[in-house]
From TrEMBL:
It comes from the Bacteria. Its main location: cytoplasm. Residues 37-221 form the Ribosomal RNA adenine methylase transferase N-terminal domain. It comes from Planctopirus limnophila (strain ATCC 43296 / DSM 3776 / IFAM 1008 / Mu 290) (Planctomyces limnophilus). This is Ribosomal RNA small subunit methyltransferase A. It is an enzyme of class 2 (transferase). Keywords: Cytoplasm, Methyltransferase, RNA-binding, rRNA processing, S-adenosyl-L-methionine, Transferase.
C-alpha cells in the first residue's frame, strides 16, 4: 500500500482539510486509524481467491485495499458520495473491487436492492465461491446488516466486523442477563460468535464516545437446520422481545390470537416451559423449539418437527 494512502489520523485530517469536508456523525463515520488493527481484521477474515467479500462502509478504502489483495472479488458499499469519490480515486487500480455508492439498507428489514444485485453478480461470476462480510460497520446499521446476512440464502462462511462494544456483548449474551435479546437468540441459534479484540475510542478518528470490538461470526449449520422456518422464527423473536419482561404466555396469546389459549398452554408444556416464564429467561434452544411448535400449529400443512430442535447441535 502507498504510504500516502494509509488510513492514519494524519492522512485523514490532511485529506479532509484539503477537500473541505468533515466526517459525518449522522452516518456513524469513525475511521479505524490503527494500521495493526486494520491488518488484524483482514487477517482474521482468512481470505482466498475463492471468496467474495462484502464490505459495508468503504470510508476512504483503508481496509478495502487489504481485502482486494487476498480475495477474488470485493463488493464495497459506501453511502456517502464524498467517501465513495475519495476511495475510487485513491484506489482506481483495484480491478477486483465493485465500488457501489448506495445505502446498505432499503429499510430496516431489507438490504438495498443494489447491494443484493452486486453481491449476486459477484457470486455468479465465481461459481462455488463463498461470501464473507468484512467491515468496519457503521454503528447505526450493524445490527440489521449482520442479522439479514445470517438469515439470507447467500453461501456466507465468515464475518469479521467492528461493532459497538455493547452490541458485541449482546451478540454473546446469556439468558437472564440484561443484554440478552432477540438478537442474541437469532445469532446464537445459527452461528458461533467470538469477540476477538476490544477496541478503545482512540483507535478511531473521530473518537467515538464508546468502546468497540472486532467480532468473528461463523455459521453453525446443524443449529440452523433445526429452525423450521427462519422468517417465522425471526418474527417470533421480534414479537416476544417487545415485551421481554412480561409473562411469555400472555405475549403468545396476544401475538398468536388464532391459537386458542388452552392450546398455547399445551405447546408451552410440550416445550418444557412453565406458565410463569419470561422470554428473557429461556435459552436459545427452548425458543427454537417453541417457535417450531407455533409454526407448525399455525401452518398445519407442514410436517411437524416435534421437539427435535431440543437435541444438541454443534
Amino acid at each position: 500500500m502507498s504510504e500516502d494512502h494509509r488510513q492514519t489520523r494524519t492522512h485523514l485530517t490532511e485529506l479532509f482539510h484539503k477537500l473541505r469536508i468533515n466526517p459525518r456523525g449522522d452516518l456513524g463515520q469513525n475511521f479505524l486509524i490503527d494500521i495493526n488493527l486494520v491488518e488484524l481484521v483482514a487477517r482474521e477474515a482468512q481470505l482466498s481467491k475463492d471468496d467474495v467479500v462484502l464490505e459495508v462502509g468503504t470510508g476512504t478504502g483503508g481496509l478495502t485495499i487489504f481485502l482486494a489483495a487476498e480475495a477474488g472479488e470485493v463488493v464495497s458499499i459506501e453511502y456517502d458520495p464524498n467517501m465513495h469519490a475519495i476511495a475510487t480515486k485513491q484506489h482506481a487500480g483495484l480491478s477486483n473491487v465493485q465500488w457501489v455508492n448506495t445505502d446498505a439498507l432499503k429499510n430496516k428489514n431489507q438490504l438495498h436492492p443494489l447491494l443484493v444485485e452486486s453481491v449476486n453478480t459477484a457470486l455468479a461470476r465465481r461459481p462455488g465461491s463463498t461470501l464473507k462480510l468484512v467491515a468496519n460497520l457503521p454503528y447505526n446499521i450493524a445490527t440489521p446488516v449482520i442479522s439479514m446476512i445470517v438469515g439470507s440464502e447467500w453461501p456466507w462462511s465468515r464475518m469479521v466486523v467492528t461493532v459497538q462494544w455493547e452490541m458485541a456483548v449482546r451478540m454473546q449474551a446469556t439468558p437472564g442477563s440484561s443484554d440478552y435479546s432477540g438478537l442474541s437468540i437469532w445469532l446464537q441459534s445459527q452461528c458461533d460468535i467470538e469477540i476477538l479484540r476490544k477496541l478503545p475510542p482512540d483507535v478511531f478518528w473521530p473518537r467515538p464516545k464508546i468502546d468497540s470490538a472486532v467480532v468473528l461470526v461463523t455459521p453453525a449449520p446443524a443449529r440452523r437446520d433445526r429452525i423450521a422456518d427462519p422468517e417465522f422464527f425471526h418474527n417470533y423473536l421480534r414479537a416476544i422481545f417487545m415485551h421481554r419482561r412480561k409473562l411469555l404466555r400472555g405475549v403468545l396469546c396476544s401475538t398468536y390470537s388464532q391459537v386458542a389459549k388452552p392450546r398455547i398452554d399445551e405447546l408451552l408444556q410440550q416445550a418444557g416451559i412453565t406458565p410463569q416464564a419470561r422470554a428473557e429467561e429461556l435459552p436459545t434452544e427452548i425458543h427454537v423449539a417453541l417457535a417450531n411448535l407455533l409454526y407448525h400449529e399455525t401452518n398445519p400443512s407442514t410436517p411437524a418437527a416435534g421437539l427435535d430442535s431440543l437435541k444438541t447441535a454443534n
